[in-house]
Amino acid sequence: MDIADHIRTIPDFPKPGILFYDISTLLVNPKAWRHTVDQLAIAIRKHEPNLLAGIESRGFLLAAPLALQLNCGVVMLRKEGKLPGETISHTYDLEYGSDTIEMQSDATEPGQKVIIIDDLLATGGTAGAALTLLREAGVDVRAAAFIIELEGLGGRDHLDVPVTSLLKFEA
After folding, report:
1. pTM for the full model?
2. Annotated catalytic residue 58
3. Which residue is catalytic, options 48, 86, 95, 156?
4. 135 in catalytic set
5. From 8, 45, 48, 58, the catalytic residue
6. Residue 137, in any domain of the structure
7. Cα–chain-centroid distance for residue 81?
8. Could you read off the pLDDT of 85-118 as tens digits, one per residue?
9. What is the CATH number of the domain that holds 104?
10. How many domains are contained in the chain?
11. Domain around 132
């Protein structure tokens, strides 16, 4: 099955000049969604994760079924102020400004093997911030996995771990 056949592109979203890769058309097709989860599970199983770190918000959709298939847990990485309880955070630079990513301070234990999960890798800013945050928490980040990677934007340059992407498109 070609997963790309189940991903819709939307020009000029969320702003002019951006081609948005919409996975909602993948999610509504159970066979294509199952195939996607299966392919990612095959690719990341070798890293023997204890936890998958899903990046808000579409990373949550992917991390949950993957975690069930791999018999591991999920930790949510969210924007500042979205998680209850005590959190740890990492602020990172954007093209115009900065952003902060957080996780609950008791969500991980030092030494746990973690894989970062999101739907799309573009510039790598958020994934790189997730990597830094998780390492600050003392976990062993083994890899990062995505459904889609936009080549030419340097996303992999922010990640010094193995990267899996099922589809690659030119940005």
Report:
1. 0.96
2. yes
3. 95
4. no
5. 58
6. yes
7. 19
8. 999 999 998 767 889 999 999 999 999 999 999 9
9. 3.40.50.2020
10. 1
11. 48-170
